[in-house]
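Sequence in, structure out.
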Amino acid sequence: MPMNIFHRMLCRSSMWERISATSIVPWALADVDLGAGALEIGPGYGANIGSLLGRTPALTGLEIDPALTERLRTRHGDSMTVVQGDGAAMPFPDNSFDAVVCFTMLHHVPSRRQQDALFAEALRVLRPGGVFAGSDGLDSTAFRLMHLGDTCLPVPPDTAEDRLAGAGFGKIGIATKGTSFRFRATKSS
């Protein structure tokens, strides 16, 4: 989804990669086992990949932007599978992954309907007992200013549990910290 130049520069920076590795991924995935095969929806510039590769032996990234898909393949293609596609219409068979994750990207999905379709697709591609986990930013004036010219539709954490349950998930947990929230949801066995 479209991002302004400031946002693109931040998301491809080594600073953002450090923040992801030391704060975002560890907090979002505390006590989460990614299993033998995990999918990251919307890896973008790849800030989370180093952290995720240490948590699962098989990582797949699903990226909607063709240019970013190619960049990810060039930088990480030997260590993971990178697929170009839409999280709201995933090109994977049912029950493909032990875990599905996404970080700081849900607000770039342009409509609530497409966000809910992404949740339903995450459930579909998960194996029974698999977990959908991740994080996103909380809506605020500063958050909106950083996203001027971007697609920006934050997911309110107080609606996330009902929306994930509506997609068919169980064992849902939502937590907030600072300017972010995390979610975890499980596909029934």
